[in-house]
Amino acid sequence: MKKIQILGTGCPKCKQLAACAEQAAKGLGIAYEIEKVTQINDIMKFGVMVTPALVVDGQVKVSGKVPSVEEIKNMI
Questions:
Q1: Residues with Cβ within 8 Å of residue 62, at least 6 apart in sequence
Q2: Where do the domains of the chain lie, and which CATH numbers do they carry?
Q3: Catalytic entry in 14, 18, 20, 21
Q4: Phi and psi at residue 37, to the nearest 5°
Q5: Spatial CB neighbours of 37, under 8 Å, sequence gap ≥ 6
Q6: Of the residues 3, 9, 10, 11, which is catalytic?
Q7: What is the pLDDT of residues 9-57, one digit of tens each?
Q8: Cβ of 49: how many Cβ atoms within 10 Å?
């Protein structure tokens, strides 16, 4: 199962990234779990300074922007 984490404080872009990540995972037909990480201290543990950020299986894939659903599919 893929662990997908959305790092962000709940801003509109964070919500958009969460929706795109879910759509990408569903499109790939894989088993996944989405977790939203909203606490600044927890976000900083990933070394991320700009949100939103996408983390797949503990690896930061992108931060500071919302990639397209197709781009996220490639990251997963």
A1: 53, 54, 71, 75
A2: 2-75 (3.40.30.10)
A3: 14
A4: -105, 110
A5: 5, 6, 7, 8, 43, 46, 55
A6: 11
A7: 989 999 999 999 999 999 999 999 999 999 999 999 999 999 999 999 9
A8: 10
Looking at residue 35, its pLDDT comes to 97
pLDDT of res. 21: 97
Residue 6 and residue 35 in contact, taking contact as beta carbons nearer than 8 Å = yes
46-72 mean pLDDT: 96
Distance CA 25, CA 60 (A): 16
Check if 20 is active-site: no
